[in-house]
Amino acid sequence: MSENDIALKKISEIVIKDEWEKHFKQKWPEELTLKRMFQVMEAAILKNFQETESNLALKRVAQKTLKPVGINENDDLPFFMLLSTAKQTDLGVDFILKRIARATIENDSDFFIKFGKVLKLRPQPDRIDFVLATMWNKRCGRIPQLSWFTDSALLEILVLITGNKKIKFDQIRKARQRLGLKTKEPKISGVKIVAGGFKFLWVDKSE
């Protein structure tokens, strides 16, 4: 490790510990190393990432998207997936800066090679797969979570979201099955465009 690397590592340690003490309003525990802290954080993030059906689907999308640029299942799939779809102005967000700080402290040159490759090549996920995975268990604005939609309603909303009028019914069903996404008790049977947005046709009511 060069003198510059050692100096950068020390500066990173000081900044991280200072931010930690400001946030928790107590001194940094002497027995807690930065390496151990990052290991705990990574384990917690990975556990949460694996717990939901939607996140498992996003992992499948990430594997398919990132494999051509040399990112495999043992790498930071969620991180590199989000990085590949981030705008240039998003590169200063907290999760990216923290991961860079960790790689700096661990002198992880392999991470920075992959980081640069993803930024340069910008591998983009299949649009339908990405929307299904990210919105399956999560409301987005006025659009309810997609697991509530019938396949025919999914077709309607995905055409509106992606702007792709060529999407077919079978394409939606196969994508959902490929990603392991199961429709919950269908609640939304259709979508209409109205002034100011969408109107969802619920099985027993309208919203």
Q: Could you write a compact summary of the structure shown?
A:
The chain has 207 residues and is mainly α.
Explain what this protein looks like in three dimensions.
This protein has 2 domains: 3-121, no CATH class; 127-202, no CATH class. Helices cover 57% and strands 6% of the residues. The protein has 9 helices and 2 strands; from the N terminus they run αααααααααββ. It has helices at 3-24, 34-51, 53-66, 77-85, 94-105, 109-121, 127-135, 151-162, 169-178, and strands at 188-194, 197-202. The chain has a two-stranded antiparallel sheet with strand order 1-2. The longest helix has 22 residues, at 3-24. The model has no long low-confidence stretch (mean pLDDT 78).
State the distance separating the first and last CA atoms.
Answer: 60 Å
Biggest sheet: strands, sense, closure?
2 strands, antiparallel
Helix content: 55-70%
Quick one: overall form? elongated
* Total count of helical runs of at least 4 residues: 9
- Low-pLDDT stretches are none
Strand order of the largest sheet: 1-2
**Number of domains in the coordinates?**
2
Number of strands: 2
Strand content: 5-15%
Structural class: mainly alpha
Radius of gyration: 21 Å
Order of helices and strands: HHHHHHHHHEE
How would you state the average pLDDT, rounded? 78
